[in-house]
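quick one before i forget lol
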Amino acid sequence: MKELQPLTKGQLYASLKNQSEDFYSTVTSALDFTLFGDHSLDEENLSEFLDMLDQETAEKIKAASLQPDEDEDPTIILAENEDSTSLNLVTEDGEGYKIILFDNDINLSGDLFVEDYIVLIVIGNIQAKNVIVNGSLYCTGNLSCNILFGASGNDHKTYFKGNIASVLIAENGHYTVANGNIYSQYLISLHNEIDGKSGRNIEKTILDGSNEADVLNPEILDESGYFDEEAFLNFIRKNTPDTIFK
């Protein structure tokens, strides 16, 4: 990744304003409540934002909104991707939260990884082998990948204005939404929601509950028979999505 220039909050929001109104509202509402400590939005906008989250996450954000924010604002950068194989977005120790804006498509033959202190905003489409989101990802376009996985951040979100097309889409405490359609062969939803606003088309297996021991490969379960996130991530590096299921 090449860092092109630092941005202010105003410059970032002005750039997002040039996109659709709903994309601008979705991203800025989330950033204001989670990173910028701006709790000045009216009750209606707050209610709409919290309704998109699970109950536990909504309660955390409500509680946080009542506390003074003593942390510094996150770093914001405009960047471009120079690597066609993989993109690993992480922060240095002590760096704090970082918002990264890509004003173009991301096309990778390998994986896209978004660390939990990263908010990635993409003005364009994303194509990659696997997309692993520990932090947050907002994209104006479509996603095409083998696996999309939202990790257990609980207060993080993956949002695509367009469609999601994958072999497997999974979450473990992460809200994942396509404003368009979701097309996938397999779906694993454990602790939050995977939502296709215009439709959710799953061709084969859906795990949408707590019976993972009955459906999933034992290699990605812990000793108690529950989904093991670390084992899952290690497994998909070496195996195809269909082998995740019994």
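fyi The longest helix spans residues 21-34.
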